[in-house]
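Course assignment 3, question 2. Fill in each field.
Student: A.L.
Task: Predict the tertiary structure for the chain below.
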Amino acid sequence: MNKLKAACLTAAIASSSVSFAGGFLTNTNQNVAFNRMMSREASIGIDGVYYNPAGVVFLGDGHHLSINWQLAYQDRTIKNDYSLFTNNVNNPITPREFKGEAFAPVIPSFQYAYNKGRWSFQGNFALTGGGGKCTFDNGLGSFERIVAETAMAACGLARTVDGVLGSEMFSSDKAFGKTGKYSFNSYMHGRQYYFGLSLGAAYKVSDNFSVFGGVRGIYATTNYYGYVEDIKVGNMPLYMVLDPTKKDAANIELSCDQNGIGFTPIIGVDFKTGKWNFSAKYEFKTRMRLKNKSVNLVPSIGNLPANLSSQMTQILTHNGIPAEQAEAKAAAVLANQTVQKTMLGLKTQFDTELDEAIGEYADGKKIAADIPAYLSVGVGYSPIDPLRINVGFHFFDDKNAKAYNNRQEKLDHGTLEYNAGVEYDINKKFTVSAGWQSTNYGLPEEEATTSKDKRFMDDKSFVTSSNSVGLGGVWHFNKKMSFTVAYFHTFYQHKKTTESVELIPGNAINYSADYSRNNNVFAAGIDINF
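Answer field:
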C-alpha cells in the first residue's frame, strides 16, 4: 500500500500537458508561422514578437496584429515488461502497453506591435507551457507494478500470520491466496496551462541594427485527478484488512490544484546586411513556485494489527472456538516477533514513502518548477527576393532550472534544438513554406539500473528526443491582411529503460519500459496591418 500511494500521487505529472515544440516547460510554437516553417528566429514578421523581437522594428510604421489558433493531439505509449503482470486476473499478459491521449482543441495566441520611427512597442499572449489535458483511462504501468508488488507482499504477510496461527486462513484460496493474483481499477488525468503575457520595446540603433528589452509574466495553473480503487488480492478485497466497515478504505484518490506566478526578463538583437539577417534572443530563467491546494483520500495502514486481530477472532469463533479463546489466540499471533517485525517493516516503509509521495502534492506546500533560461539564434538568407532560407538553434538550460527534488540534476545537459526552413512567394497572393526541427533532450545515457531513483525517465514524466516537420501556406488577401494555415508532425524516438527488482533477496527480475509519443498540430492564423 505504501508504494501504491506513491505511484498514484506522482503519476499525475505524466498527464499534465500536451507536448509541443520546445523544451520541457517551454512551448516555442506560439505562432502559425512556426508551424509552417519551423525556423523563424531570423525572419522579419509580426510573429517575431516572440521569435525575433528586435527584428520587428524593421516591419515599418503602423499597427501589426497576429491572431492564431492551434489544435494539438498527442498520444503517449509505454510498453512495460514485468513478469508479475501475469498475476493480473483480468489481463495476464506481458509485455503490456499503456497509452495516454492528450487533446487540446483550442490553443490561442496573439502578437501585437506598434512601430513608430525607431521604436517598436510589442505585446504577446500565448501558452508558454502546457496547453491541454492528458488522460490515461487504465492508469500507468507504474500503477500496476505497485499493485502487483503489493499483492505479493500481502500474500507474504498472510503466510507469516498463518504459519504462526497454525492454520490456513489469510493464505487460503478464499482469501489472499499464495500466488499474488490481483485485480484493480485505476484512472488518471491532468491538465497544465502556463499563460504568458509579454511586453517590451525594440529600438532601431541604425538602419541595420536593433535591440530589444522586455519581460514576460507567467501564470501557471494545473490540476491532477486520479484514483486506484477496488484493489483485490486473490479473492479478498484489500479494504477488508484495513477497515472492513468501509469499502473505500483501501482506495486512493488524488485531487490537486497548483497555481504559481513567475517573471521572465527578455533581451534580443537583430542585424541586417545585404541579403543576410542575423538575430539572437535570450530569456532569463523564470523562478516558479507552484502552491498546492489538495483534497486527497489516503488509506491508513495503522489499523492493520487491530483489523487482522478482528478478522482472526471472527473466523476462529465461526469455526467453533469460544470467543475468549479466539481473542487470546489472535493476540498471541500478533505478539509473535516474526509477525510484529513483518508488520512493522510494512508500516515503516508505508509512512516513509507516504511522506515522500505527499511531499509534491501536500496541501499548502510550494513546489519548485523553474522555467529554464532559453537562448535562440538564427540566420536568414534571401538569394532572390521571393525566396527566404532560415536556420536556427535553441538551447534550454534545463540543468540549472530547479525542479522538485532537484530532478534536473539527473540530466546530462540542457535541451538542444536545430531547425531549418524555407519559404517561397509563388506570386503576390500566395506563399508556401516547409521546415524541420531536431530536438535533443539531455536524457541520461544509462538504460539499465538497479534503482529507479537513479533514472531521470519513468512513465510519470517522460520525453524522448524527436524530429519535427512542418508545412503550410499564406494567402495574402491584400497588403493589410493575410491568412495562414499549417500542419506539423513530430516523429519521436524510442527510449528504453530497465530496472532490476529484488522482491526476494538474491532473486532479481527485470522491469523494462519502452517510451514513445506521437504528435500532430494543425494551425491557422490571420495577420493584419493597419
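Instructor remarks: The CA atoms of residues 85 and 94 lie 6 Å apart. The first helix runs from residue 2 to 10.
Grade: pending
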